[in-house]
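Researcher: If convenient, please comment on what follows.
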Amino acid sequence: MNFKISKRYKDILDLYVHKGEYTPFSIGTFVVFAFCFLILIVATFSQLNFSHPWIVNTPGVGLEFNMKHVAYTPQIPIMLFIIYLIGRNYSVLLFIAYLLVGFFVWPIFAFGGGLGYAQNYLFGYFLGFIVAIFLCGLILKKSLNVKFRMLAALVGVISIHITGFLYCFVLAAFKVIEFSLVFPIFSALSGRKFLYDLIFSALILLVAPYIKNVFWICMKPKADEYKKSRKSRHTRQSN
């Protein structure tokens, strides 16, 4: 059975579909901004537990497939999703708010907070968020199709991990940590986790347009625009 929708309602629904417009300043956008702030904090302290086959080197046996159990924190994919959802400018504001709260109000960073957290090697990955915001924002500004979204996922994940790696060198240069710890830290934080970040970021950006259309109703209601367009069409038809 074919379901047909009238042109009137089709025009209404079409006005509520995101087509690459900039995120406007509105009360709805503020609500979505607060929601994004909340899910970023939740993602920081959440873990996805799953298992998958992995090749391991067992003494006396050699290479074999075994099940690897993973406790994964989805903070990076959530951040990339937020960049897509509210755009580059609001993502910068969200990142600044996140840092200010973590520094001066509440320890919302992973494993702590306060100004002293800047000496933590994990802080470099947070700084990588701002790099990802600008790079992914430029990519998504050109196009929102699948290829550009997958490119944004790749560039975003790489930029965050590289920034975290470079920040470890900065800490070592200021003798906060030993140089001998830089590569072990990077291996622990960006080894297999890089692959997981890439996979989950690609998946969440794959479905992000459908989710954004739901939030777009809140961020940019266009009922007034629809009324004006109907009035304009009615006037032209009358003349």
Remarks:
- The chain has one domain: 20-222.
- Strands lie at 48-58, 62-72.
- The two ends are 39 Å apart (CA to CA).
